[in-house]
Amino acid sequence: MSARLLRRVLQEREVAPQDPDVADTEQQEDEEEEEASPPRAAARNLFDLLGGGDDEEEDKEDEAERNEPLSYTEQRHSVQKKPTNAVPETNKKSKKKKKKGKAEPSSTKSKDEQSLDSILEDLSIEKKPTHQRVHQSDRGAGKEIETNEDRATSVLAIDPKHLKGENEMRRIFGSKVVDSFENQRNMPSSSRQVRGVRRVAHNPRKTLLVSPPSYWPPWDKSISMDLLETKSGLNYFRYTFDPSVSHVQELFEAAKAANDLNAIAAILGKYPYHPESLLTFAELFKYSGEHQSSADAVEKCLFALECAWHPLFSPLQGSYQLKYSHDMNKPFFTALFSHMKNLDRRGCHRSALEVCKFLLSLDSDDPKGALFCIDYFALRSQQYKWLEQFAEEYQCDNSLWLFPNFSFSLAIARFYLERDAASEGSDHADKSTSVDLMKQALMLHPLVLHKIVDKAPLKDSSWTQILRNVFFGSAKPGSPSLEHMINIYVERHYIMWRFPELQNLLKEAALLVIESLKQDNREAQDWACVRKEAFSSEKNEYSHLLVSDFSDTTPSLPPEELRPFMVGPGMVHEMPPIEQEGAAGPERLRAPREVAGRNPALVFLESLLPWVDYGDNHHDANDENNGD
Questions:
Q1: What ranges does the record list as Acidic residues composition bias (predicted)?
Q2: How far apart are CA 531 and CA 446, in angstroms?
Q3: What does the H/E/C string look like for 57-126?
């Protein structure tokens, strides 16, 4: 046996041990072929291509890769010069022959896999998926990491394709329209940029919730997220400030207590991603009518908070909890809720639904009342089947169909599913009809009808006759919690009842309720008992939820309410009444400010305020004051 063949056999035995009989047979075949084959010449005979098969083609490719052809003796000499741990090139040819002749290696490999699987079963060891891997820092800290795959595939699973409003806008209006709007938004304008201040463009970090523009500053890494504990397959997280910027929150609390907006602007000038300062400006812009600036501040806050996510915190998996009881987590809930309302205002109802699902999955206690608007977004985005599935699978203290919003929304969803089934020719005879569900909703919550007629409003004369009925006319909520829930439902969903087909459905169900009560009045008492048992608390359990937070309209503050925020806290008492300011002329209403020698970032943030002016007349005003 030659040295080359011996070396190859030893290497094969080290990689995968085989049957000795099979190995000897293969060695003998290789030796016979090696002795019988004549040395190759540099020039090949073209007639050999007729019967060469795969081996000849493979040899031709190997020779084409070399710079110049080599003889057989030169090839053997070059192989002997190679180190012992190198695999010879002739292994390709031998492996090809093995595949042609016999299938022993594959059978041996399958036997090895079967034996390995049996060993793993005996040891009760399972293969872990890749998404359950954790960082070494968490393992070193002794924290037990668990994942809940069932929760990831639950009814609250988030679709990342529908999470951003820009994607939904592109599906509605087209990419060209949305791209042109984004280009105009990113271009410098007089209202967003002060003279002498240039935006520095860079490639922003890609995030899941928002699309940051290029002129936003890079994330300052002032916030991080820590893993607190793992319990029942859920990982509990909490936001924390970096120790180097922990004093910023104290500065914000002091400025907030003094109503000093300039101090908050100074914080944003140095720390542009401070969450609560951004949310403060977002609220101020919203009440002053600057809705786009308010939405930008909210998205900027979400961008910073998302950049701080822990590697194990992912909305796409679902095995997480971010408790609202921690003060550092509250800005994320507030920003998500505001972002959801902004998406709804833009008409991106499907994106608002995905954000609402994310908000509801953060904390099982639902501190922001996502349950009272998730059905609305499902109806507006035409996710009727998902809404029925959600009502069946979501775990809650009471059945969801007892809530006023779900009792009526499930009837609406069934109405549209019946209409789609009729057009497709299918049948849903095994389920209750939409009229029956709407009748049950009216029997359970009769007070909703009167409020919907007033809020929508429904001006048909037939509604006046229906409301004259004793059952609807003298309806009472029964408990403070239920009354608050009804007010939230009417404020959030009243626009749905402006569709004529839903008005006809509501009218048909109301007339059926009146007819059934004429035949048997005890049915109303039975539903009253159900209502009293489901909402038996004497206190308003949802008093922390404001009805105005679920409204489509945003009230604007009068000028006298905004005046305390225009100057520092010590100058409020020195300002004259607003009537005197108006009588003094329009030049007194302007509050020009100096730009030279100030922080450009602070000047830029200050220029966003609607009452700040950098006009040319401030030099004249200063000259007059100096002359006096």
A1: 21-36, 53-65
A2: 11
A3: HHHHHHHHHCCCCCCHHHHHHHHHHCCCCCCCCCHHHHHHHHHHHCCHHHHHHHHHHHHHHHHHHHHCCC
Query: What three-state secondary structure class fits 234?
Result: strand
CA distance 447 to 434: 20
Helix, coil or strand: residue 298: helix
The region, left, alpha or beta by phi > 0 then psi within -120 to 50, assigned to residue 125 is beta
Q: Where are the alpha helices (DSSP H) in 124-260?
A: 136-140, 149-152, 165-173, 175-186, 247-257
Q: Where does 179-279 show beta strands of DSSP type E?
A: 223-231, 234-241
| Angstrom distance (rounded) from CA 63 to CA 526 | 92
**Segment holding 613, helix H or strand E:** strand 612-613
Rounded to whole angstroms, what are the CA distances from 271 to 207, 230, 261, 275, 567? 20, 32, 15, 10, 21
DSSP string, 340-405: HHHHHHTT-HHHHHHHHHHHHHH-TT-TT-GGGTHHHHHHHTT-HHHHHHHHHH---SS-GGGSHH
Tell me if 82 sits within 8 A of 76, measured CB to CB: no
Q: List the structure tokens of 375.
A: 């059905």
Determine the Cα–Cα distance for residues 295 and 166; give it in Å rounded to an integer.
13
- Residue pair 525/478 in contact (Cβ under 8 Å)? The answer is no
Return the bridge partners of 612, or none: 591
Q: Please tell me the distance from the alpha carbon of residue 436 to that of residue 39, in angstroms, as a whole number.
A: 92
CB atoms near residue 216 (< 10 Å): 20
DSSP 616: T
CB under 8 Å to 411, separation ≥6 — which residues? 434, 437, 438, 440, 441, 505, 509
Whether the bond between 457 and the residue before it is cis, its omega within 30 degrees of 0, is yes
Amino acid at 161: K
Report which of 119, 622, 545 is spatially closest to residue 366, judged by C-alpha positions. Answer: 545
Mean pLDDT, range 288-292, rounded to an integer: 87
119 CB-contact burial (10 Å; exposed 0-12 / middle 13-18 / buried 19+)? exposed
Q: Strand 591-592 and strand 612-613: pairing?
A: parallel
pLDDT at 241 over 70: yes
CB within 8 A of 68, min separation 6: which ones?
Answer: none
Q: Residue 233 gets which letter from DSSP?
A: T
User: Which of 45, 37, 18, 42 lies closest to 93 in space, CA to CA?
Assistant: 37
Angle, CA of 489, 494 and 496, to the nearest 5°: 115
- Is the distance from CB of 376 to CB of 384 less than 8 angstroms? no
> Which tokens hold the place of 142?
């002794």
The token pair at 282 is 């977002």
206 exposure class (CB count in 10 Å sphere: 0-12, 13-18, 19+): exposed
Render pLDDT for 506-555 as a digit per residue (tens, 0 to 9): 999 999 999 999 988 888 999 999 999 999 888 999 999 999 999 988 77
The b/e string for 401-427 (b: 16+ C-beta within 10 A; e otherwise) is: bbbbbbbbbbbbbbbebbeeeeeeeee
pLDDT per residue as tens digits for the range 479-510: 999 999 999 999 999 999 999 999 999 999 99
Cβ(479)–Cβ(536) below 8 Å: yes
